[in-house]
Design brief:
Strand order of the largest sheet: 6-7-5-4-8-9
Order of helices and strands: EEHEHEHEEEHEHEH
Structural class: alpha/beta
Shape: elongated
CATH architecture of the largest domain: 3-Layer(aba) Sandwich
Number of helices: 6
Helix content: 25-40%
Number of strands: 9
CATH topology of the largest domain: Rossmann fold
Largest sheet: 6 strands, mixed
CATH class of the largest domain: Alpha Beta
Length: 195
């Protein structure tokens, strides 16, 4: 049994069953209106600890006040590395100095505000995945695009839902050595920026 969402003229109906059940619901509810049928799929499973962290992060965000007004996006790209790729930002900033890029390295606890460590290279604080996703969303609103390198499967799945973010999932052990990972990243960044 699957879950389907039938949308009739913008109004959603949930159907549990088969595609035929979804089509039957569409024929009942959608007379002469535009109709869409979506197969619902689990995107991410959250345990009680994940939900607690999200609630705390939402509370912190609400306490911080409304988001600043949207400004015009910068022409360049932001490249973000999760904690697995510590130190990669500075190396790739030197390697790709001729491209319109700004690099952000996510650190765990230890800093409480962004720190500029080199021209166009920043370290960003993050207490949890929600902080990383908030950083990606903020950068996606500021730049033409965001390229996010991560080795965390759950975080990669969540980040793919943010418009304007290209997620490059590199699980631990998939690339033979730091040098190969850096070459692969540089190649992928060039490809994404030039498309």
């Amino acid at each position: 049994m699957h879950t389907y969402i039938v949308v009739c003229g913008g109004k959603p109906y949930m159907v549990v069953g088969s595609l035929l059940d979804a089509l039957a619901k569409a024929s009942e509810e959608c007379s002469g209106e535009s109709t869409e049928i979506y197969k619902a799929k689990l995107i991410v499973e959250l345990d009680p600890e994940d939900l607690r962290e999200i609630r705390e992060s939402l509370s912190r965000r609400a306490a911080a006040g409304p988001a600043p007004a949207k400004t015009e996006k910068a022409a360049g790209y932001a490249v973000v590395f999760d904690q697995m790729f510590k130190g990669f930002a500075e190396i790739l900033a030197r390697e790709l100095h001729d491209m319109p890029l700004e690099f952000h390295e996510v650190l765990g606890r230890g800093i409480d505000r962004p720190i500029r460590i080199a021209p166009g290279v920043y370290q960003q604080p993050a207490r949890d995945d929600y902080d990383v996703l908030s950083l990606l969303e903020r950068l996606a609103n500021q730049y033409r695009g965001v390229i996010f390198f991560t080795g965390d499967k759950k975080l990669a799945m969540q980040a793919r839902l943010i418009p304007g973010v290209d997620v490059e999932y590199l699980p631990p052990g998939e690339v033979a050595g730091k040098e190969m990972a850096l070459k692969l990243m540089a190649s992928r960044i060039r490809e994404l920026v030039r498309r």
